[in-house]
Amino acid sequence: MSEHPEALSAERLRMALGERAFQFLETTSSTNDVAQRWAANGAPHGAVVVAEFQTEGRGRFGRRWQAPSGTALLFSVVLYLAHLSILPVRYGMAAAVSVRSALIELLGLDPSVVKLKWPNDIQLHGRKVCGILLEPLWRGASLEAIIVGVGINVRVPLDELGLRAIATNLEPYCRAPIDRALLLADILKRLDFWSENAESSALFQTWRAALNMLGKRVQAADATTGQQIVAGQALDVGEDGALLVRTDDGQIHRVFAGEVTLQGPKVE
Ligand code: BTN
After folding, report:
1. How far is the CA of 59 from the centre of ligand 1 (A)?
2. Which of 10, 40, 225, 268 places its Cα 20 to 30 Å from the Cα of 171?
3. For residues 130 and 121, is the Cβ–Cβ distance under 8 A?
């Protein structure tokens, strides 16, 4: 059991989440696994799985996602697709925008220091504070649901995990200790709204406006091999989530996946 005074519990989550269907686990392999199984067995839309600790938490590109018990907000939400033509990436945008606005409006963080790193990382003062993992749930050949896994660093011992250079925590930047159950409830309300409006131009524009790299020089690399895919100026993003990169020879490349890093000062 976690020792922290705001340790999560089923009771605390019930109070915060009201009628929403949820599962709370002290320890599990990955909340995404539990949400996948629950969705395959009829979880309602918006159902959420929350854990204090994951033994096999995972990030994008098969990376590990680590956080000792009680130090992070770890959850996965089941979102059924309203119709087949919705692009799954729109749910990633919805999740990123929901977390960012909760950090700003609920926790009082300054919008200028809470930015999105394409596609959906949330950075605080330039370091990663939240990661989002989208996983599809197929029924036969049709995509039935998206599992949206979210990990937020609240008070993770970054030095112990060797993550200090690239990651940060929420709590040091907040006026009061964080109540993760209330933070979760706030994020989920926002996600209800944005997932209902997943195809809206308002969602796309809100996501686009929060990105930290438009206009700057970037490099996109294959996340597994580290090999460069393209380097140039990040011109814009598309409604389909693609990052548009203009190389020095003037060609425009659409990047759909990969690790994108900033390379240098803004190109005017
Ligand atoms: C990333 O940035 O690579 C995405 C990280 C997503 C981590 C969360 S923690 C809750 C959920 N369960 C998992 O196993 N992963 C996601």
Report:
1. 4
2. 10
3. yes
Inter-CA distances, 123 with 77, 172, 265, Å: 21, 14, 18
* CATH number belonging to domain 10-210: 3.30.930.10
CATH 3.30.930.10 domain span(s) along the chain: 10-210
Question: What are 84-122's pLDDT values in tens digits?
Answer: 888 999 999 999 999 999 999 999 999 999 999 999 999
Please say whether the dihedral angle defined by the alpha carbons of residues 155, 62, 161 and 158, taken in this order, is positive or negative.
Answer: negative
Q: What atom of ligand 1 comes closest to residue 130's alpha carbon? A: 2
What are the DSSP calls for 116-176, one per residue? EETTTEEEETTEEEEEEEEEEEEETTEEEEEEEEEEEESS--HHHHT-TTTB--SGGGSSS
Q: Please tell me what DSSP assigns to residue 110.
A: -
Positions of CATH 2.30.30.100 in the chain: 217-262
**C-alpha torsion 158→125→263→118, nearest 10:** 90
Q: Are 199 and 86 in contact (CB under 8 A)?
A: yes
Nearest to 78 by CA among 188, 152, 157: 188
Which one is the CATH code of 217-262: 1.10.1060.10, 3.90.110.10, 1.10.3720.10, 2.30.30.100?
2.30.30.100
Closest ligand 1 atom to the C-alpha of 132? 4
What residues does ligand 1 touch, defined as CB less than 6 Å away? 30-32, 54, 57-60, 63, 65, 74-76, 121, 131-133, 149-151
Tell me how far the alpha carbon of residue 150 lies from the centroid of ligand 1, in angstroms: 5
Task: Please tell me the pTM assigned to this model.
Answer: 0.95
Read off the pLDDT band of 2 (50, 70, 90). Answer: very low
